[in-house]
Amino acid sequence: MSETSKQNVSVVALARENVQQLTPYQSARRLGGNGDVWLNANEYALAPHFELTAQTFNRYPECQPKDVVRRYAAYAGVQPEQVLVCRGADESIELLIRAFCEPGKDAILYCPPTYGMYSVSAETFGVEGRTVMAKEDWQLDLPAIEQALDGVKLVYVCSPNNPTGNLINPEDIRSLLETTRGKAVVAVDEAYIEFCPQATVAGWLKDYPHLAILRTLSKAFALAGLRCGFTLANSELIDVLMKVIAPYPLSTPVADIAAQALSEQGLALMRKRVAEVSETREWLRQQLEQCDCVEQVFTSESNYLLARFTASSSVFKTLWDQGIILRDQNKQPGLSGCLRITIGTRQECQRVIDALRPLPGATSTVRETSSASKEPM
């Protein structure tokens, strides 16, 4: 190749082939919108107030800030050596792949419909993303998973599951842990566990050295903008992740605010938010079920509801045009016609209901289509 030809080569051509073909995760912020009611990212609707107490910004932060680790361990009911703090649960997902999966050789396994970052992270690192579809009730298909485990080093289970909102049967998770013992790490994603704390598997760490639990401050703690998450695991697994984590994963201000959020007062405020969100979720569920355009509202143990709509694309756009931004789940396997609605304030949820009430349901749509077909050409 001549020097001129080399100069004309696009920088994209220098990227790894799998990255050239990669479709990035379509986060709520990437999808955009011009709304004033944002119910598409499972955030808390109101901003908490914090004041920075740390002032040593001229120094690099601790790799694992002691106060954050100690307080989170106490909150989660584990030992400090079983806690790794990182940049959101998304970094935990990637750390596990980097530490345990050989590119071009090993695979991860996950069960759609579920969180999209598992597949994107695997593809980014050149690791196979293997899928076993969840059953119709969105529970694990254990026999199918067992058949697909050859070459799998890492299994992701999201509970409560995003975007469906359901808990995974704990006995199925235990069966999976037994099946994968000595073969693969099982990562249970508990990003929404504060909305159903009784369902955590954190107490199982003593029994399963290959169990990792992913947590975050983004949801119930109302700190999505902080980007602070945790991996809970036995110290042997944490030590492996420490080999691949960045030297300074949390900035000093992030660690400062995280420690405040995990104080006794911060935990009390978090639990108050959870109670408020849970109450609004139940109200919204009841209201949705009275809307003609809503075919089904699914049970949720999280800060969002998944619902199936008649003409969901039209519903989505109608609300979008009114400044109400929901999350379209139509492209997820088995979720045709489904939209996910984050639980906002009662006023925001009322806006949703007011926008949905005039919209026709399946019976009306069929009737209108039938009447239109009888009109003369």
Give an account of the 3D structure.
By secondary structure, the chain is α/β, with parallel strands linked by helices. It has a seven-stranded mixed β-sheet with strand order 2-8-7-6-5-3-4, sandwiched between helices. Strands 9-10-13-12 form a four-stranded antiparallel β-sheet. It is globular and about 55 Å long. It contains 14 helices and 13 strands. The C terminus is likely disordered.
Quick description:
With 377 residues, the chain is of the alpha/beta class. It is built from 14 helices and 13 strands.
Defining traits:
seven-stranded mixed β-sheet; 377 residues; 15% strand; 13 strands; disordered C terminus; globular; alpha/beta
The shape, in one word, is globular
What's the helix count?
14
Average predicted confidence as pLDDT = 92
Q: Can you tell me the residue ranges where pLDDT is under 50 for at least 5 consecutive residues?
A: 365-377
Give the terminus-to-terminus CA distance: 64 Å
Structural class assignment? alpha/beta
The largest pleated sheet is described as:
7 strands, mixed
SSE arrangement:
Layout: H1 3-8, H2 17-20, H3 28-31, E1 37-38, H4 66-76, E2 83-86, H5 88-100, E3 107-110, H6 117-124, E4 128-131, H7 142-147, E5 152-158, H8 170-180, E6 185-189, E7 211-216, E8 229-233, H9 235-242, H10 252-261, H11 264-288, E9 294-297, E10 304-309, H12 312-321, E11 324-325, E12 327-328, E13 338-342, H13 346-356, H14 362-374
Parallel strand pairs: 1-11, 3-4, 3-5, 5-6, 6-7
Antiparallel strand pairs: 2-8, 7-8, 9-10, 10-13, 12-13
Helix pairs in contact: 4-10, 5-6, 11-13
